[in-house]
Amino acid sequence: MTEDPNTVSEDDLHAYVDGFVTPRERERIEQWLESNPARAEEVRQWQAQAVDLRALFAGYAHSDTRDRALLSKSSGTELLQPNPDKETRSAGGRLRAIAAGLALFAAGGLTGLYAPSLFSIDAGSRPIETADSLPRQAQSAFLVYASEVRHAVEVGADEQSHLATWLGKRLDHPLTIPDLSSLGFSLVGGRLLPVNGKAGAMFMYEDGTGRRLTVLLGRNDDNRETSFRIDENDGVETFYWIDGPIGYAVTGEVPRSLLQQVADECYRQFDKSEATRS
User: Fold this and answer.
1) What domains can be seen in the chain, in order of their start residue?
2) What is the arrangement of strands in the sheet containing 198-207, beginning at the earlier edge strand?
3) What are the tens digits of pLDDT across the range 164-191?
4) What is the pTM of this model?
5) C-beta separation of 216 from 183 below 8 A
6) 31-88 pLDDT tens trace
7) Residues 6+ apart with CB under 8 A from 136
8) Pick from 78, 99, 191: nearest CA to 141
């Protein structure tokens, strides 16, 4: 990647969206995006699409011993061979072509492997898949939005009542936004986002040092209740549970003990709110 702070290439932006940049590069790209709002909006759209795709396939994100064999046998590996007629193509262009070819083949392979289960999911297994996919969706949303400076949320904390009403209607479930001030976190705001292909809600909080965490809610009427569970992925941890038709996930890059306190407090307030309405 180039070190010129005034130049950010298409490859830089794709690497930024995919999380393949160093902290220094991330800061440089974000400074450039601040000065280029049109590209910043395009990048936000890419990030949102990535979240949607991860959410869509989260329930099937498991490896199979046949995957590597399928890729090695693919005619798509021909894309890796040099083409003397296109020596002028940029390295980034070649990489994108290779990635696109492999992605298309992988998509076809996965469709062949998993299409039967996609269209004939047993009703008894659906709640388990929903629970297992919840932390991945929460972590994806956290990684995309917690790093945003100006567009982290759709509705700010100054419209908290409207935020709760709006998202509650979209989830078809009355919402109370947790107050985490006792743990040092104040509400930044929230947004609507997809969870398991349906309308979901995300609330974002921030402490005095700038650390952020998110609380994600998703609806699925087939859910089975679960106790607290913990999931970790590349340093991002999530406490999650299912209570009735709603799944909850608290995500952040904070000490696990603190994150559990936040999850406990959210559970207590959500449960108290449910009891009050009953």
Assistant:
1) 10-119 (no CATH), 126-277 (3.30.200.100)
2) 155-156, 185-195, 198-207, 212-219, 246-252, 236-243, 229-233
3) 999 999 999 999 999 999 999 999 999 9
4) 0.56
5) no
6) 888 888 888 888 887 877 777 666 655 555 555 555 555 545 544 444 444 444 444 4
7) 54, 58, 61, 231, 233
8) 191
Residue 175: both structure tokens together: 């919402």
Tokens of residue 88, six digits: 């002028």
